[in-house]
């Protein structure tokens, strides 16, 4: 009996301290960096256009495009394709995507396209692409927006994120960050 | 694999090697009631909690009393978790309006978090309320690992005590594990994770209008507090469906390496604690060396196998120099994904930063293999217990070879210990292979497989290996949301935890009653490189003999079909 009472009390205490006080207290402390704590939303011209680290679908020619997403960039249903290495679906999907990339970016050959652009990410929300995947889209974007290719290359260089301590991670750029810059440039043209 | 990959593994091994002495010493002091630097703050809190719960820390229990109380508490927590999951639709803090779970899903999820498995048959974004994420999942992430840690502590006391059948006060140990070890680490690393971009908010999903004019709804919540303890406690349950591949759970290569270190930290330190209990630090280092060597080999192999993309993808003509990128995130690339994968399966964590189902056949085989061996670190506590089973076996076999009564740290290993050890050792493969075979034989269960052929066998075996090893990661292609899988994986999790803990604590109880014999010339020393080599050999041989058939039918068959 003694033990039963003690166990109930332990659960009450654990739920209170670990389940409520701990997350609530830190949700409070996190208000010190409200933008990070709330998911690092990006606002342009008074409009929230996305979260910096959450990938979104881009398909129009004037923007950089991201990777394939198993869930169509649904940020309420993250996840991978889970296609195994011997699943033919992997190839059908990759070929379809490759043909689309070749069509949209004239002059690009299949061997110029890194495999990441024809494969799906683990989260379905990968916000980033490798540098080569960004550079191969430069001519298309320049043509459809009128922005100079050099300006776009400078943009990629500016937003490049390198490795941590020279070894961890891969060099990459955030697609939304680039596209927000393009949006701003186009806005200046419009005015 | 690249020189960078080797550098990453070396950096991780060195940092862990540097951390186990201070953390291991601290853990030992906590459980032996010795002075620690946090006493001024935590001492009064602990005394208050002990008074509130009327715990007399000097009242010790024999092994039966100890494990009965542990099981009673665990099952009470599982029951509580079940109730909350069922009722969450009617409870507050539910901004995403998650409905109550079905009975089978609630059973599976409750058992999963109660047993430190964190297998997730539900999708975090839509099927778990913020309340469930906090009061059930975050709470269980502390309590379930605490009961694992105290099991290991009780076992080590049994090894080190002289003719004294008492193993300690379960409640005092349990409270101390949470209050003095898990909570300080969790508080510290929550503060590290938030500035790195892991959200910590009570707000519901964000709604945005994208540059292309589309609506996007973005799930978020109190992620950082969960993410920290999820790795410190080898839990692995994600806030989001994509787990630690989700950019909110693991935003950058920096957070990625921190999470890898966090999940290796406590299990590795527990090996050092063993050396302290045995008053033979060398013994701790020898076992640590053996285990870390296995980890380095497996992490290196995973990276190497993943550095090549699937040959059928190569045929499309794209540039595959970056390796197997299907199901991997750009920011980690292949190396950091493989290192995370090897760490999470070694340390029984189960969080994933990449889709294990999409790994190359051999890459995936290493991941499932780490869980089958269940001794390459293992989770905090439970892992050390598995290592100790293998140590007892190694001692026993070495004794047979030289024709002496086997001894470990001055305690005679006799038929009772070996018999109980065999039970603990056999339950793991029996449960895995039994459920895998059963499920492959049932057509409706077989239909859950996404990738047909040999890969499907791997998918099925992975699910039950993960459940039995209390790991929680998955080959995500398997559709496990049916009642059949919820019940079978739930039962496998219970067997994998309690059917191993009970015989193993019985071994501890029986060892505790024995005298410690003085060392003689005929003693087979267990703190030598030779013993480390034998231990590695036994782990690999027993693992290979047990699981080779299923690995041959699954990943090996797929590899040869693909690569020729």
Automatic annotation (TrEMBL), chain A:
InterPro entries: KdpC. Its main location: membrane. It holds the Pfam family KdpC. It is a single-pass membrane protein. It is found in: Cell membrane. One of its GO terms (molecular function) is ATP binding. The keyword Coiled coil does not apply. The chain crosses the membrane at residues 7-26. One of its GO terms (cellular component) is plasma membrane. Keywords: ATP-binding, Cell membrane, Ion transport, Membrane, Nucleotide-binding, Potassium, Potassium transport, Transmembrane, Transmembrane helix, Transport. The system is composed of three essential subunits: KdpA, KdpB and KdpC. Belongs to the KdpC family. Part of the high-affinity ATP-driven potassium transport (or Kdp) system, which catalyzes the hydrolysis of ATP coupled with the electrogenic transport of potassium into the cytoplasm. This subunit acts as a catalytic chaperone that increases the ATP-binding affinity of the ATP-hydrolyzing subunit KdpB by the formation of a transient KdpB/KdpC/ATP ternary complex. This is Potassium-transporting ATPase KdpC subunit. It comes from Candidatus Solincola sediminis.
Automatic annotation (TrEMBL), chain B:
GO terms for molecular function: P-type potassium transmembrane transporter activity; potassium ion binding. The chain crosses the membrane at residues 6-28, 66-85, 134-156, 177-198, 257-278, 285-305, 384-402, 422-442, 491-509, 530-554. It is a multi-pass membrane protein. Pfam families: KdpA. The keyword Transport applies. Its main location: membrane. It comes from the Bacteria. Keywords: Cell membrane, Ion transport, Membrane, Potassium, Potassium transport, Transmembrane, Transmembrane helix, Transport. GO terms for cellular component: plasma membrane. It is found in: Cell membrane. Belongs to the KdpA family. The system is composed of three essential subunits: KdpA, KdpB and KdpC. Part of the high-affinity ATP-driven potassium transport (or Kdp) system, which catalyzes the hydrolysis of ATP coupled with the electrogenic transport of potassium into the cytoplasm. This subunit binds the extracellular potassium ions and delivers the ions to the membrane domain of KdpB through an intramembrane tunnel. This is Potassium-transporting ATPase potassium-binding subunit. It comes from Candidatus Solincola sediminis. The gene is kdpA.
């Amino acid at each position: 009996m003694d033990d039963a009472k003690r166990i109930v009390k332990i659960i009450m205490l654990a739920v209170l301290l670990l389940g409520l006080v701990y997350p609530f207290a830190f949700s409070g402390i996190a208000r010190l960096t409200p933008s990070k704590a709330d998911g690092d939303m990006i606002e342009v011209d008074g409009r929230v256009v996305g979260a910096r680290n959450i990938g979104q679908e881009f398909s129009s020619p004037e923007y950089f495009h991201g990777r394939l997403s198993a869930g169509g960039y649904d940020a309420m249903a993250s996840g991978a394709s889970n296609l195994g290495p011997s699943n033919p679906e992997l190839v059908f999907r990759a070929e379809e995507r490759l043909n689309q990339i070749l069509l949209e970016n004239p002059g690009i050959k299949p061997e110029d396209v890194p495999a990441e652009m024809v494969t799906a990410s683990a989260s379905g929300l990968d916000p980033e692409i490798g540098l080569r995947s960004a550079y191969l889209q430069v001519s298309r974007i320049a043509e459809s927006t009128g922005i100079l290719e050099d300006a776009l290359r400078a943009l990629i260089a500016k937003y490049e994120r390198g490795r941590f301590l020279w070894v961890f991670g891969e060099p990459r750029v955030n697609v939304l960050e680039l596209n927000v810059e393009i949006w701003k440039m186009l806005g200046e043209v419009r005015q | 694999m690249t020189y960078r990959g080797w550098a990453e593994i070396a950096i991780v091994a060195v940092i862990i090697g540097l951390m186990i002495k201070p953390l291991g010493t601290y853990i030992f002091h906590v459980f032996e009631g010795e002075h620690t630097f946090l006493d001024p703050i935590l001492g009064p809190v602990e005394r208050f909690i002990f008074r509130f719960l009327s715990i007399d820390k000097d009242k010790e229990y024999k092994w039966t009393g100890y494990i009965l109380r542990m099981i009673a508490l665990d099952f009470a927590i599982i029951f509580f978790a079940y109730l909350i999951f069922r009722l969450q639709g009617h409870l507050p803090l539910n901004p995403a309006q998650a409905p109550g779970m079905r009975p089978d899903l609630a059973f599976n999820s409750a058992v999963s978090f109660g047993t430190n498995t964190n297998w997730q048959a539900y999708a975090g974004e839509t099927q778990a309320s913020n309340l469930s994420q906090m009061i059930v999942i975050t709470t269980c992430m502390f309590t379930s690992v605490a009961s694992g840690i105290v099991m290991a502590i009780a076992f080590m006391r049994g090894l080190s005590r002289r003719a004294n059948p008492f193993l300690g006060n379960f409640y005092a140990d349990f409270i101390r594990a949470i209050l003095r070890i898990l909570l300080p680490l969790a508080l510290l690393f929550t503060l590290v994770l938030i500035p790195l971009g892991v959200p910590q908010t009570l707000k519901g999903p964000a709604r945005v209008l994208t540059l292309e004019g589309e609506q996007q709804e973005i799930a978020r919540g109190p992620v950082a507090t969960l993410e920290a303890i999820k790795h410190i406690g080898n839990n692995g349950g994600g806030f989001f469906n994509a787990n630690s591949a989700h950019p909110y759970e693991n935003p950058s290569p920096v957070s990625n390496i921190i999470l890898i270190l966090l999940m290796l930290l406590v299990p590795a330190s527990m090996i050092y604690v063993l050396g302290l209990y045995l008053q033979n630090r060398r013994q701790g280092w020898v076992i640590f060396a053996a285990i870390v060597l296995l980890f380095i080999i497996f992490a290196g192999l995973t990276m190497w196998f993943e550095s090549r993309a699937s040959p059928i993808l190569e045929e499309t003509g794209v540039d595959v120099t970056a390796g197997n990128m299907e199901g991997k995130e750009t920011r980690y690339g292949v190396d950091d994904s493989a290192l995370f994968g090897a760490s999470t399966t070694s340390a029984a964590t189960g969080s994933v930063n990449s889709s294990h189902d999409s790994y190359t056949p051999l890459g995936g085989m290493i991941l499932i293999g780490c869980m089958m061996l269940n001794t390459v670190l293992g989770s905090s506590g439970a892992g050390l217990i598995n290592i100790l089973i293998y140590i007892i076996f190694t001692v026993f076999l070495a004794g047979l070879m030289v024709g002496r009564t086997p001894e470990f740290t001055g305690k005679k290993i006799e038929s009772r210990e070996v018999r109980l050890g065999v039970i603990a050792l056999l339950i793991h493969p029996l449960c895995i292979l039994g459920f895998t075979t059963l499920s492959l034989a049932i057509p409706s269960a077989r239909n859950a497989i996404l990738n047909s052929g040999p890969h499907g066998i791997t998918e099925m075996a992975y699910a039950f290996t993960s459940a039995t090893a209390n790991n929680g990661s998955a080959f995500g292609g398997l559709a496990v949301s049916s009642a059949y899988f919820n019940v079978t994986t739930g039962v496998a999790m219970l067997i994998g935890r309690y059917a191993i803990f009970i015989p193993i604590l019985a071994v501890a109880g029986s060892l505790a009653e024995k005298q410690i014999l003085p060392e003689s010339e005929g003693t087979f020393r267990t703190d030598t490189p030779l013993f480390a080599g034998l231990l590695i050999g036994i782990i690999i041989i027993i693992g290979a003999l047990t699981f080779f058939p299923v690995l041959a039918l699954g990943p090996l068959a797929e590899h040869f079909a693909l690569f020729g």
